[in-house]
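Methods — Computational structure assignment.
A single polypeptide chain was analysed. Its primary sequence is given first, followed by the predicted tertiary structure written as structure tokens.
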Amino acid sequence: MTEKRRQQLKDFFNLYAERFNSALRGEGADIEGTAAAFADCLIAASPQGVNCGSDNEDFRKAMSQGYAFYRIIGVTAMDILSAESTLLDDLHEMTRILWRFRYTRKDLAEGSVDFENIYFTQSKNNETKIFAYITGDEQAALREKGLI
């Protein structure tokens, strides 16, 4: 992978994380900016199954509800601990991101949860878009920490 392309992916995911953190801090969610990080058609896989979605108004509403959910349960930040990108071909990449979300529970106990997501992106015309991602069992991790 060229250094320029590697830097482009790093910048892309850092901006994605910053938008998420801005929403968690209550500074306003950049729903349009975050939605622009995704392709018009999207595949999401998790232990709950595989879902197909579209970058539409329902997607934006779900994103807004997701940010609100994380704030309600006490998530205060989403940090990228590491990101490893693999070039698949001239247009596509796979990036494994190790995330840490920090939280403060209602009983004021603080902690964090580390988890990995795998993102598939397409980069063309100087623009990167997520077209698929794979997540672990986030709900189980939230229950284990007493957040839900």
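Note: The first strand starts at residue 38 and ends at 46.
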